[in-house]
Amino acid sequence: MKICRIRMFESYMRDDSGGWDFSLFDRAFKLAEKYNIKILATLFPRTGKNDIGGYKFPKNDDVYRSLLDYIQRVVMHFKSYSSLYGWVLVNEPGLGGNIPYGDFTKKKLEMWRKEYVPESGKRAGYPLLIDLIDQRFLLDYNTWFLELLADEVRKYDSGTHIHENNHDIFKNCAEYDFPRWCTFLNSLGGSAHPSWHFGFFERDEYALAMSANSEILRSGAYAIPWFMTEIQGGNNTYSGYKPFCPTKEEIEQWLWIIIGSGGKGGIFWSLNPRASGLEAGEWALLDFQNKPTDRVEAIKEVAEAIDANRDFLSNAYVSEPGISVLYVRESLWAESKMVIKSPVSYEGRMIGGVMKSALSFFELFTCMGLNPSLKEFAEFDFSKADYSGETIILSHQIALPTTYCRQLEWFVSRGGKLIVDGLTGFFDENMINTMKTEFPFQKLFGANISEFKAIGNLFELKNDRGLSLPAHLWQGLLSVNTAKVVFETDNKVLAVRNHYGEGEVLWIPSLVGLGARLSKNYEPLYRLMKNEIKNRYPFELKGFYPGLILKVLRSGNSYMTVFVNKSGKDIRLKWKTDLKPVRMVYPENSTLKGSKTLFIPSEATLVIEWQ
Question: Sign of dihedral through CA atoms 69, 70, 73, 78?
Answer without folding.
Answer: negative
